[in-house]
Amino acid sequence: MTDQLLSVRDLSIAFRSGGRETLAVDRISFDIAKGETLALVGESGSGKSATALSILRLLPYPAARHPSGAINFKGTDLLKLDQRQMRRVRGDDISIVFQEPMTSLNPLHTIEKQIGEILLLHRGLTGAAARERTIEVLTQVGIPDPQTRLKSYPHQLSGGQRQRVMIAMALANEPDLLIADEPTTALDVTVQAQIIALLKDLQARLHMSLLFITHDLGIVRKIAQRVCVMKDGNIVEHGPVEQVFTAPKHPYTRALMASVPDPAQGRRALPLKGDLPSPQDIPEGCRFHPRCPLATDLCRSSDPALRVAGSDAAHTVACHHA
Fold first, then answer.
1. Strands 64-65 and 209-214, how do they pair?
2. DSSP assignments along 256-285, one per residue
């Protein structure tokens, strides 16, 4: 597509520990267009956060490595940049919001100092100019009385306010791509809704692309245009959000949806049976077959590739029985 911003192709991520290497992400591919929101969804341990951190090259290298793949951002493969070049990308072109702001913010420094450091490193702003920009971004994210909050420390803010500060830090240099790694996990449902509304509003106003990582399918429908469902380091289903939600093709996607209760419909949560396989002991064939009600001998012996599901080429699924 002509307005493509990020293109991940055949990306693999392996981690070495104790003389053994584990493949955590296995040849995944996806694109994000300018101004678009793509959601990565899956259980804990499916490879979502590792994928996000690899885009910014924040994995624990050299314990981590990429056996295959490319991460093309504006036509440049980020995996081929040196550390000096990557520092220019981080926080400027691409920013990230982590799921737990209390551990991401420095407890020893004020909000003004932490945002000001970003403005100094990437824009060379100091003094009154940095203070003015800091107040501007705090206002953008809905922090009340931002002039007073400049001198606050993280522990003096509520959970929702700390997450807003994290978003303000990420937006300080007006990035083209914002990665939100489960930004609402530690928040109550009311604050979650506020943060989602804030991200949607900021994205529309700044025409920013968003990679939203979550295990909460309810949030995906509210914020994303397309969704990739990850399972044990693979993308097993990908397509427009409404299409995937109304006509899910992969048994894993359907199981994830069934695990979400719907009081309005009188539907109780149905837990996904079985245990997650160990990353060191991934089963042969389809990785979901030990927990799948549709599994056959073909599933146990052959790993299905992504293919078009039905008549819409934008909806793909990795399942022999889709």
1. unpaired
2. HHHTS-BGGGTBPP-PPPS-PPPTTSPPSS
**b/e map of 286-317 (b: 16 or more CB within 10 Å)?**
bbbbbbbeebeeebeeebbebeebeeeeebbb
- 230 neighbors 40 (Cβ within 8 angstroms): yes
Q: Return the structure tokens found at 216.
A: 């909460």
CB 270 within 8 A of CB 283: no
- In this structure, which amino acid lies at residue 266? G
Full strand arrangement of the beta sheet holding 316-317: 94-97, 177-181, 209-214, 37-41, 226-231, 234-240, 316-317, 307-308
Question: On the CB side of 205, how many CA atoms lie within 13 Å of its CA?
Answer: 11
Task: Decide: helix, strand or coil at residue 313.
Answer: coil
Per-residue pLDDT tens digits for 233-245: 999 999 999 999 9
Which helix (H) or strand (E) segment holds residue 291: the answer is none
172: DSSP letter: T
> Each residue of 266-275: pLDDT tens digit?
666 676 776 6
User: Could you please report the per-residue DSSP string of 18-36?
Assistant: TTEEEEEEEEEEEEEETT-
Distance CA 150, CA 168 (A): 12
Residues 47 and 253: their CA atoms lie apart, in Å, by: 16
Cα–Cα distance measured from residue 245 to residue 248, given in angstroms and rounded to the nearest whole number: 6
Q: What is the pLDDT of residue 1?
A: 44
Contact partners, residue 210, CB within 8 Å, separation at least 6:
36, 37, 38, 177, 178, 179, 180, 199, 203, 223, 224
What contacts 9, CB < 8 A, 6 or more positions away? Answer: 29, 69, 70, 71, 72
Tokens of 152: 């606050």
Dist CA 115 CA 254 (whole Å): 42
